[in-house]
Design a protein that fits this description.
mainly beta; Maltoporin, Chain A; 22-stranded antiparallel β-barrel; 6 helices; 37 strands; 56% strand; globular
Length: 660
């Protein structure tokens, strides 16, 4: 971002803020300091965390009127949902890493499913309370797979919906979108009938046809028929808390078996995911115990009947696990405090692939058992210096029928330092390591690939190992242009060196072979910037991402590095009427620097979105909320790298909810 652009951005905020009168100043300012536990497993605001972490809050999710996670994560630096506008084909890409290189967690449940081009995010985004995006290697806290980072999501609770003085409530929501005839309905019942008891049940149905691009052409096989449900209950008493969480998701649709491509092998597909978790927490208020134990299970099931052939494929992954973490706090001296976080994680993945009732070599029947043990010390010295060293030891064992067992162990290290140089400036830096065990499919895959090409397994694959160096700064200003406004700026530059990066290669063309091998050395460098301003009337934000990735062994660019992106958001809210409106502009710079010759390299494009929210202050309309928006206002046809599919054209959206 140029100095001129930044000055202009701040002047807009100043002009709008100075125009506010005394009546405007009676409104409340939306908090800029969302809390997160993802970055360090100890709660702190995102701006104070010595890491690159962003939090998408409930209000932003509602404004987005999302059909998928891609709608939720617009404007978050360093992250993009790849897979194009087929909602169940999406998967997160953080800092150039996707697939199993990003850890995905929902309500403490690991979502480990990954199969070819079938996607890995199967959920109803309208049920989310918040989304934390932790960018950069994070194996010290989250184990295998966190080379790119962590996507951690939390669903809503009754306490998030109840208004002051209420014990029970019911919310009904209906919505529609113009581009694909999308229709949605949701009913949520919730309450706290007794002190310390929180209950919620929510059921949703979403139905849509195919999207259209800006030229009015169908984006084929992007229709969905989705049903989902969420049931939660928790009890808190004298520092103890127990929560039970059940989630269901089902989508019936037609889609290519390679769902995020222009593949021509079309299947009638059922995508189903079921998960459950039981959490126990205890805080002794003495500093010794701040304990969380989560036991969980997750089943992802995909059934595909290929049109015109009768071929019947089943792809299934069952995950069971337990995560235990405790933080002990102590005052070492007048100038030194310690928060020691330690714990363990155990989980088992069982995958099964079936074709016409016989084992399917493309998704081999296999099992992986992973154990991780970690400890992190957070020293706070003289109230302005924080030093966070950490270690984690992981072991994994993998086995498949008729193949040799594989196992290994890894030690991951981390050191983060932050210094509060002034009341408004924090400097931070970190060194973090991460690893990813080869997936069961990478190790044991066989059979055919796109009809004639043959998969060749590689049981000698080594784990990927990343070493990330990062420095950044966070600036925090309050009462900048008027009372109760705030400005937050956070940015970082990083270099992630990866050893033994696992890459798939095709040799000999359509009648050749496909295998996976280790790339000895790869490097991703980048910079990220996030700016947020909130005032009683005016709000605005800017995010920017720039990354470059190289295969240092061959001298080629890496294939899946997203294009540079700048997002600018600005809007107004009128407290006396309950109306707010905003405009978002996204400038994609195109991607010409890639070794992926099979994917088009799109050029520069500027896309605009409009959003409006109305929550009337009239007591007669109490409980009503209306959201309106237009995505891609000027109906442009465009693609985002590395997608093979055009993005959605102009899409008008309207959602209304009424709470009783």
């Amino acid at each position: 971002m140029s100095t001129t652009a930044l000055v202009g951005f701040l002047l807009m905020a100043a002009t709008a803020a100075q125009a506010q009168n005394a009546e405007d100043e009676k409104g409340a300012v939306t908090s800029l300091d969302a809390m997160t536990v993802t970055a360090t497993r100890t709660e702190k605001s995102a701006i104070e965390a010595p890491a690159s972490v962003s939090v998408v809050d409930r209000e932003s999710i509602l404004q987005a009127q999302p059909q998928s996670l891609d709608d939720v994560l617009k404007g978050v630096p360093g992250v993009q949902m790849s897979g194009g506008p087929r909602n169940t084909a999406e998967q997160p890409n953080i800092r150039g890493f996707s697939d199993e290189r990003v850890v995905v967690i929902t309500d403490g449940v690991r979502k480990n499913f990954q199969s070819g081009h079938r996607g890995r995010t199967f959920l109803d985004p309208t049920l989310l309370k918040s989304v934390d995006v932790l960018r950069g290697p994070s194996s010290m806290l989250y184990g295998s797979g966190a080379l790119g980072g962590v996507l951690a999501m939390e669903t809503i609770d009754a306490s998030d919906l109840l208004r002051p003085g209420e014990k029970v409530g019911l919310r009904t929501t209906i919505g529609g979108q113009s581009n694909n005839g999308y229709k949605s309905a949701n009913v949520t019942a919730f309450g706290t009938p007794l002190d310390g008891v929180d209950l919620l049940f929510s059921a949703s149905r979403h139905n849509s046809g195919n999207y259209e691009d800006g030229d009015g052409q169908d984006i084929p096989y992007s229709a969905d028929d989705i049903g989902s449900a969420l049931a939660k209950g928790s009890i808190e008493h004298e520092g103890h808390a127990v929560e039970l969480n059940l989630q269901l998701f089902r989508d019936d649709h037609e889609i290519p078996t390679a769902a995020n491509t222009n593949g021509t092998v079309i299947a009638d597909r059922v995508t189903r995911e079921e998960s459950g978790s039981l959490r126990y927490g205890f805080d002794d208020q003495e500093g010794l115990l701040d304990l969380t134990v989560t036991a969980y299970t997750n089943n992802t099931f995909i059934r595909e009947i290929v049109q015109g052939t009768g071929r019947h494929d089943v792809t299934q992954l069952d995950t069971i696990g337990i995560d235990v973490a405790n933080t002990s706090r102590a005052t070492l001296s007048d100038d030194a405090k310690l928060a020691l976080t330690y714990g363990l994680e155990l989980y088992q993945d069982d995958q099964e692939g079936v074709r016409n009732d016989a084992p399917r070599q493309q998704y081999p029947n296999a099992t992986q058992i992973t154990q991780g043990y970690f400890a992190q010390a957070e020293f706070t010295l003289w109230d302005d210096l924080t030093v966070i060293p950490g270690l984690r030891y992981d072991t994994y064992d993998q086995e498949a029928t008729g193949a040799e067992d594989v196992g290994d162990s890894k030690l991951s290290k981390k050191l983060a330092v932050s210094y509060q140089a002034t009341d408004w400036l924090m400097l931070f830096g970190s060194y973090a390591e991460a690893f990813r065990a080869p997936s069961l499919t990478e190790l044991y895959v066989g059979g055919t690939h796109f009809v004639f090409n043959t998969f060749v397994p590689n049981p000698d694959l080594k784990p990927e190992f990343a070493k990330n160096k990062e420095v950044g700064a966070a600036l925090r200003f309050d009462d900048v242009f008027t009372q109760r406004d705030g400005l937050r700026i956070k940015g970082a530059v990083f270099q992630n060196d990866v050893e033994d990066l696992i890459e798939q290669s095709v040799q000999g063309g359509a009648f050749g072979t496909t295998t996976t091998d280790n790339v000895p050395e790869a490097r991703i460098r980048g910079a990220e910037l996030e700016i947020q301003y909130e005032g009683p009337m005016f709000f605005s934000g800017l995010s920017a991402t720039r990354m470059r990735g190289d295969d240092l062994t061959q001298g080629d660019a890496l294939a899946d590095i997203p294009e540079d992106l700048v997002t600018l958001t600005a809007g107004l809210r009128f407290a006396e009427t309950g109306l707010s409106a905003g405009w978002r502009s996204m400038l994609y710079f195109g991607q010409k620097r890639s070794s992926n010759t099979g994917t088009p390299h799109p050029g520069k494009k500027l896309i605009h979105d409009l959003f409006v929210t109305y929550t009337p202050n009239d007591p007669a309309l109490d409980g009503l909320r209306v959201d309106f928006g237009i995505d891609n206002v000027f109906d442009k046809t465009y693609r985002r790298y590395p997608s093979e599919l055009n993005e959605v054209g102009r899409n008008a959206k309207l959602t209304a909810s009424l709470q009783f």
